[in-house]
Amino acid sequence: MLRNYFTIAWRNLAKNKVFSLINIAGLTIAITVCMMIYLFILNEYSVDNFHVKSDRIYRLRRSFLVEGTNRQAVWVSYPYATALLNDFPDMIEKAVRVRPDNDLFTLGDRSFNEPGVYKADSDFFSFFSFPLVKGDPATALKDPRSVVLTESTAKKYFGDRDPIGQVIEMDRQVPLKVTGVARDVPPNSHLQFDIVVNQAYEPHDTTPNAWPNNGWFTYVLLKDHTNPEALRAALPAFMEKYMGKAMRAQGFHFKLEMTALPKVYFESTSYDPVRHGDKAVVFVFVSIAALILLIACINFTNLSTVRAVERSKEVGLRKVLGALKSHLVRQFIGESILLTAVSCLLSVAFLAILMPAYNQLLGRTLVVSWSTWPLYVFLVGVTLLVGFVAGCYPAFVLSAFKPIESLKGKLRLGKGGSFFRQALVVVQFGISVFLIVGTLVMMNQLYFVQHTNVGYNRDQTVVVSIDNYDIYNHRRLFKTTLEGQPGIESVSMMSGDPGGFFDGMGFKTDGRNDQVFNARTEFSDFQIVPTLGLKVVAGRDFSPSFPTDSTDAVLVNKSAAAQLGYTPAQALGHWVQNTSTDNKQRRIVGVVDDFNFQSLKEEIEPLIITPGADNRVILIRVQPGALRPALRQIGEAYKRAAPAYPFEYHFLDQDFNELYKTDERQQTILGLFSGLAILIACLGLFGLASFTTARRFKEIGVRKVLGSSVRNIVLLLVSDLLRPILLGTLIAVPIGYYVMHHWVENFAYRTAVHWWIFAGAAGLTCSIALATVGGKALRAAMASPARSLRTE
Q: Does residue 309 sit in the same domain as residue 375?
C-alpha cells in the first residue's frame, strides 16, 4: 500500500513538472531560510552551555538607580571574590576573577600587541570548561608567572615547536612561562581570549580603600546544594558590611546581583567588552522564518487546490474501486510530505553552499555540526509539519469529490474554494509588503543616524589608544611632538572618545549639598573642545591663561546645567564636587552644547568634563587632504614615545559607524529575506496565473471573436489576480506602521515613519506582481481564437 502511494505520488510530481518545480522552488527557499535562522537561534542559545558546571556558575553585577532608571555594571573590585568565599563558605565553592586587558608580548625579536589577554585567578581552567590540548587545567596557572596560550596564538609565536616550558615576555618586563595550550575559544562563548595570565604576577590592593575601584569580572560557582535565591537574599547585608560606608559617602546605593552564566550573553545592557546577543533579534528572525514558510505553504495549498479538477477523474475512479476518504487523505498528504522531503534535501545542499556567505552577513561564525541530532530532528519536524499543513486542505478538498460528477467531468470548484484561494493570496502579499515596509523603515532610520548632526566633528580624526605603560608615561611627549606639525590641527588626550564608555559618577553641587546627582564624566586636557569641534554656549573653554583651570575648573554640557536647575549662563561660577573620586570642589567655567557622546539610541546624559590624568585615548584632528603625511608623522611620534609597541590607530567616524553595525546587518538580512518572500509569493502567483489563463482559454477566444481587444482581455485577467494583492497591501500597511513605529522608538533620536515608505512598498509589490502575471495574461490574450474554439 505504502509503495503504491509513493509510486503514484512520484508519478504526479513528474507529470506536472511546472507546478512541481514551483512548489519545490518555493519550499526549498523557505526551508533554507528556516534552517539558516534555526542555526542562528541554536547558536545564540548554546552560548556558554558547553561549560560542565554552567548551571551553577553566576556572574556578579552591580545594580543602581540613576534618575529613576535602573542601570547595571558588571565590573566589581578585586576584594569581592575573597570576601564572598570567606562570608559564604557553605554556599560558594569557588570564585574566579577575570580582567580583560591589552598587552605587548615578545618572543626574541618579534613583538605582538595582544588585545585578547585575560588576567585571571589560577583556577580559571578548572572553573570553566575551556579544554587544554597541553597542560593540566588544575595546575596550568598555579605559578604566578605562568601563561596559557590558545592553539592559534601558540602557533603564531612558536610555529610547530612545543611551546610548553618556553618563556615569553609581557610588556618587556614580565617573563612568563608557557604552562598550557588551550583549544581556540569556540564562537559560542561570551568570554573570548587568546592569552590567559595568572593575575598573581602583580600585587593587588585588598584594603577597604580598594572596594570602590571596580575593574574585574567576578564569577562564583555555587555548591551543589545551594539555593541561588538564598545567596541573593544574603547579598544586601554583604554589601552593607563592606560597601555601606563608601556608598553613603558617595551618595550612591548599589545592589549586588547574580546572573546565571547561560543568561550573561543576553545581558546586553552591561557595558562590558564581551560578546552579547539580543533576544529581540532572535524574535525577529523566528518571525521572519515563520512568515516565509507560511508563504511557501500557501503556494502549495493554492496550486494543489486549483489542480484538483485535473485529478477529479482519478479520485472518482479510486472511490468507485473502493478507496475510502481516509485512504485518499493519506495519499495526498503523503504526496505533500514527499515533495517537502525533496525540498528539505535540496535545502541541506544549498545551506552547505551558502554558509560562508551567511556567516559573513551575520558578522560571526556559526557552529554547524552535521552530526548533531537537533538539526535532523528539525528537518524531520519541518518535513512533517509543512507537508501536513500545506497538504491538509487540498487533501480534504480532493477526497470530498463525488465519484459520479468526477467521472462525468462536470466537476467545478465552488465559490468557497475561490474565496479561500484569494484569501491566501491576500495573506501572502500582505506578509511581503510588511517585510518590505520593515526594510525601508530600517534603511531610512540608519541613513538618518549616519547623517544626523551629533554635535561634534568626527571626520578627519585619528584615534590612538593609550593601552600600554610606555605610551601612557610618554603621552605628553607624544602630544607635544605632534602639535604644530603641518597638517595636524589639534591633539587632545581624554578618558573616552565619543561612542565609547563614559564612567558614571556621583556629584554634589552648591545649594544642594545634601543631594547627589549622577553624571557621565570625561577627564581630558585643555584641547578637547577644539579637537571635537564642540560649541561653547556659555562661559569659556579651558585655557592655559588661567593656571587654576587644571585643578579647579570643569566644563559641563547643557543637560548637566539643566539637571542642576540652571540655564547655561546661570550655571557659570557654581561648583560641583565629584563624590566618587577626590571630593574636590571645582567651578563651572563653561557650558558646551549637548553632543551625542554615546549611541543615538541613548538620550544625551549630563556630562562633566574635568582636566585630569585618566587618559585612555588620544584624538588627533587632521586637516583635509593631509591624512597620509599626518599618519606618517603620528606613527613616527608614537615610535619615539613607545618604541617597543606597534603603532595602531583607527578613525573616529569608523567607531561611530561601528555602533550601528548590528542594525545594519539586521537591515541587510531583512531586505534579503523580504526579496525571497516576494520571490516565493510571485512563484505561486505565476502558477495561479497559468491555471487561470488555461481555465479561461475558451472564454478568451469567445471574447476575441465578439470583438474584445487584447488590452481589455489583459485588464480582465490582471484585475482578477491583482485584487487580492491590493487588499493584502491595505491590510499590511497599518500593521507595518504599528510595528515599525515601535522599532524606531528604540532610538532616542529617530526619523518619522514617512507615508512614502508605505507607498513605495505597495508600489514595488504591485509592480513585481504585475510583471509576473502580465506576461502570462498578454500571451493568453494574443493567442489565436481558432486554437481555443476549434473543438467547439
A: yes
Range of the domain at 375: 1-47+277-413
Give CA–CA dist 675/764, Å, rounded. 11
Output the nine-digit C-alpha cell for 414: 465552488
Which residues, listed in sequence order, are joined to residue 336 by a DSSP beta bridge? none
Are 118 and 233 in the same domain?
Answer: yes
In this prediction, residues 41-51 reach a mean pLDDT of 90
Output the pTM of the full model.
0.82
DSSP characters over 272-301: -SS----HHHHHHHHHHHHHHHHHHHHHHH
Is residue 448 situated within a structural domain?
A: no
Does 168 share its domain with 34?
A: no
Can you give the pLDDT at residue 158? 94
- Cβ(722)–Cβ(769) under 8 Å? yes
As a dihedral over the C-alpha atoms of residue 322, residue 325, residue 327, residue 333, rounded to 10 degrees, the angle is 150
The pLDDT of residue 118: 96
Q: What gap in Å lies between CA 631 and CA 496, rounded to an integer?
A: 21
Query: Contact, 242 vs 231, CB < 8 A?
Result: no
pLDDT digits (tens, 9 = 90+) for 188-214: 899 999 999 999 998 887 777 788 788
**pLDDT at residue 94, as a whole number:** 95
Which of 723, 691, 25 is closest to 306 using CA atoms? Answer: 691
Q: What is the pLDDT of residues 388-420, one digit of tens each?
A: 877 776 666 665 555 555 555 554 555 445 677
Q: For 101-129, what is the mean pLDDT?
A: 92
Residue 389's contacts (CB-CB under 8 Å, 6 or more residues apart) are: 297
C-beta separation of 749 from 596 below 8 A: yes
Q: Which phi and psi (to 5°) does residue 98 adopt?
A: -135, 135
> Structural domain tally of the chain?
2
Alpha carbons 195 and 153: distance in angstroms, whole number: 8
Q: Quick check: is 432 in a domain?
A: no
Q: Please report whether residue 223 resides in a domain.
A: yes
Q: Residue 458: which region, alpha, beta or left (left: phi > 0; alpha: psi -120 to 50)?
A: alpha
Report residue 72 CA to chain centroid gap.
20
